[in-house]
Design a protein that fits this description.
The chain is 39% helix and 19% strand. With 738 residues, the chain is of the alpha/beta class. The strands form 5 sheets. Strands 13-14-12-15-16-11-17 form a 7-stranded parallel sheet, with helices on both faces.
Length: 738
């Protein structure tokens, strides 16, 4: 055989061979190195061997005794059940296997002791362990080898745990010495971590639970570190790029600025180094904003004129953080998190005003037409009296409307452009796009965000926003390359929404409460998980509920229906009727989850609430409570399992979106919660964002220190880290956000 390396094919490991190698390949295990890093998902502690008489149903237990009898019997269905009775001085237990004649041949002529592990359960004649793992005891070494902390690996059909364990053991025995530790000795010492080879041995063959935990800590830290190094390097690279330096301080002082005649910015080139481009513009395009500047009106004073309310302290803090980014000659990449109703749109408007007053265009891209039109209505209302033209670009516009909007954008007359993904279509040409704002950014892909940035002048600033609170651990993995601002204060005067969880038996009383509020002049939402009935899914359907309410308990009220399968113009017509209070009740699917703002609606009834995740329930609840009246959210569900009941309890107990997000992460896990929102950042082999949050923060701080002193990891001691980061980037380069 050729020289042993970590790239040696897995088939050459003891116990694998060419016949079993394809099963390993199904798990992505092609080489010895792959097997070494195929880490156990859990462990079975077989070190405790109780007397058989103490074994109880429901226990995963290791038993040891003498094989007393072996017998096989066929069933009517053709299955053969093998039963072996094992006894010790205190009692006996039955071991059973199904359709495994080779075990019968192995056991029937054996007269000795056996050790077995499995789940004990009640049977007709006492305790039984079905399909146990077992070992025949030829000597005490066999027993000791079996009765230990045993790893359980991710596996696949046709690949028994025993085979995977044997391969891992061979990899440790013959190849572990070839493993190079990529982490510098100074970092290991600083973080008090064990060497890699020791950790791999202990994670596969733990000598004690304490050593296994210590090995896991090192491997989790390492996994987090490579991710955080990659993100920190990406962030540092962005901060090195040339961008637009907005004259924020001059605008704050009300300085009379001249229009930017020749602006030098860096246009990133994917294949070559950044190149400088120059843009010449005539002065007449900037007269409206220059008029305000020449009046000497400071930026904050203009904001006070623009907004019909006082900003909260959190909003002012976040605005200053955004302006600080805009003022430096590097492109901004900032994420603004804020709970439902915290005032993110006002913050974005202040950033957009600064960009416009500096002589640039700004665009806001929203994921749905409803949300885009909502933003257009709000921002147009704020900017109109300042003489700033706002244009709307959405898919449903007719050719005349679209042609006019495109002309306004290209000429520069439209300073603010609001739209859906329509703003990144090839035919859209901006005059001087300097700031791009992306709302509900998790709904857009990497390519869509990049396409908007590419339409900018040079390297425009990017501000992304989300009303979906994200736990800190998930934020550090999904968006660690972005600077983060959090609006953690709600506007004064808003009353907390009162939330109640009700069973399906309580519908009549819920309907009575809704009628009382409607009689008082309020409006109500009824939200369903489905558009129409489905045989496969027993859940409330919007069309069915609309029919029953309209022809039943609320026959005297005006009820509308809204769902995603309706045409755009029909959806907008229904929403406009609801906004104008021409409808008392709106029955809808989750199409209203984002962007619907009707202050008079004060009750939200969510049918089959157990079918929604916590974050989605919180988003839906945020559609009410937007006025001065007390608002309510009623969760109707048949919450039979523990997770569903816990979700309902969390919603009743708190309206804090970040507490809800942490609970959602704990209940559903990071993969479910984030869906396919980001490229492979969450694909950890061993790390757990719920369990290992503190270690993630430790790894992040270590990564920031390393990148701060060695931005490109070119120092000799960081060579191993650089290789690992490059491997990680190459693995995720082809994965894009969907």
């Amino acid at each position: 055989m050729a020289e042993r390396t970590l790239q040696t094919e897995a088939q050459f490991l003891k116990g694998v061979g060419p016949k079993i190698a394809p099963a390993f390949a199904k798990l992505g295990l092609y080489t010895v190195g792959d097997v070494l890093y195929h880490l156990p998902r859990r462990y079975e502690d077989r070190t405790q061997i109780p007397p058989i008489r103490l074994v109880r149903p429901g226990q995963h237990v290791t038993i040891r005794g003498r094989l007393r009898s072996v017998g096989a019997r066929p069933t009517r269905g053709g299955m053969v059940i093998l039963k072996a009775i094992v006894e010790d001085p205190t009692g006996c237990v039955a071991l059973t296997w199904f359709n495994q004649p080779w075990i019968k041949r192995k056991l029937e002529n054996y007269d000795g002791e056996i050790v077995a592990y499995g789940l004990a359960k009640d049977a007709d004649f006492g305790i039984e362990i079905s399909s146990p793992e077992y070992e025949l005891i030829e000597d005490e070494e066999d027993a000791a080898d079996f009765a230990r902390i045993v790893p359980v690996y991710p596996s696949t059909e046709g690949l028994p745990q025993k085979t995977v364990r044997r391969a891992a053991r061979a990899a440790i025995e013959y190849y572990l010495s070839l493993v190079e530790d990529p982490m510098p000795p100074s970092l290991l010492k600083q973080e008090r971590l064990r060497p890699l080879a020791w950790c791999l041995r202990e994670i596969h063959q733990p000598s004690s639970d304490a050593n296994r935990a210590e090995a896991r800590q090192r491997l989790v830290f390492e996994e987090f570190l490579y991710l955080q190094l990659s993100l920190a390097m990406k962030r540092a690279e962005t901060h090195q790029e040339l961008g637009i330096a907005f004259p924020i301080e001059a605008l704050k002082q009300g300085a009379m600025l001249e229009p930017p005649m020749a602006i030098e910015t860096a246009k990133p080139n994917r294949r070559k180094a950044a190149v400088v481009v120059k843009e010449e513009r005539s002065t007449h395009l900037f007269e409206p904003e220059l008029a305000a500047m020449r009046d000497g009106v400071p930026l904050w004073d203009q904001i006070h004129q623009m907004l019909p309310f006082e900003l909260t302290g959190a909003q002012r803090r976040v605005i200053e953080e955004i302006w600080g980014d805009m003022a430096v000659p590097h492109p901004m990449n900032r994420l603004v998190q804020g709970d439902v109703g915290s005032g993110k749109t006002a913050v974005a408007a202040c950033a957009m005003l600064a960009a416009v007053r500096a002589g640039y265009q700004t665009a806001l891209m929203a994921p749905t037409e409803i949300l885009a039109e909502q933003h257009f209505a709000n921002i147009h209302g704020l900017f109109e009296h300042l003489g700033i033209l706002v244009a709307l670009l959405i898919g449903k516009q007719n050719s005349k409307e679209r042609k006019r909007a495109l002309a306004l954008v290209e000429s520069g007359e439209a300073k603010v452009i609001i739209g859906t993904h329509a703003v990144i279509q090839e035919e859209v040409k901006f005059d001087r796009l300097g700031l791009a704002v992306i709302d509900e950014q998790h709904r857009f892909g990497v390519l869509q965000r990049a396409a908007l940035r590419e339409k900018g002048l040079g390297n425009p600033d990017v501000l992304v926003m989300t009303a979906t609170p994200i736990p800190r651990t998930l934020t550090m993995t999904l968006y660690g390359d972005l600077d983060l601002s959090v609006i953690d204060e709600m506007p004064p005067g808003r009353k907390p929404i009162k939330t109640h969880a009700k069973s399906t038996m309580d519908r009549d009383s819920v309907y009575e409460g809704v009628r009382k509020l409607v009689t008082e002049g309020r409006q109500a939402y009824f939200v369903c998980p489905m558009v129409s009935e489905s045989e496969k899914m027993q859940a409330q359907a919007a069309e069915d509920l609309h029919y029953r309410l309209e022809n039943g308990v609320f026959h005297d009220l005006k009820i509308g229906l809204l769902h995603g399968q309706m045409k755009g113009k029909d959806k907008e017509a229904v929403m406009e009727q609801f906004r104008r209070h021409e409808l008392d009740i709106l029955v809808s699917t989750t199409v209203i989850e984002v962007g619907v703002d009707v202050p008079n609606s004060s009750v939200m009834v969510i049918e089959d609430a157990n079918r929604f995740g916590l974050s989605q329930l919180h988003q839906l609840r945020g559609r009410v409570g937007r006025g001065s009246a007390q608002s309510y959210c009623i969760l109707i569900s048949d919450a039979r399992n523990a997770d569903a009941r816990e979700r309902m309890d969390v919603m009743v107990e708190t309206t804090d979106g970040f507490r809800i997000a942490e609970a959602d992460l704990r209940i559903r896990g990071p993969g479910e919660m984030a869906g396919t929102a980001q490229s492979g950042n969450r694909d950890f082999k061993i790390a757990d964002l719920v369990q290992d949050g503190k270690l993630l923060e430790t790894a992040r701080q270590a990564a920031l220190r390393i990148v701060d002193t060695d931005p490109h990891l070119i120092r000799p001691e960081n060579r191993g880290l650089r290789i690992k980061v490059q491997e990680r980037r190459s693995q995720t380069a082809v994965i894009t956000v969907s």
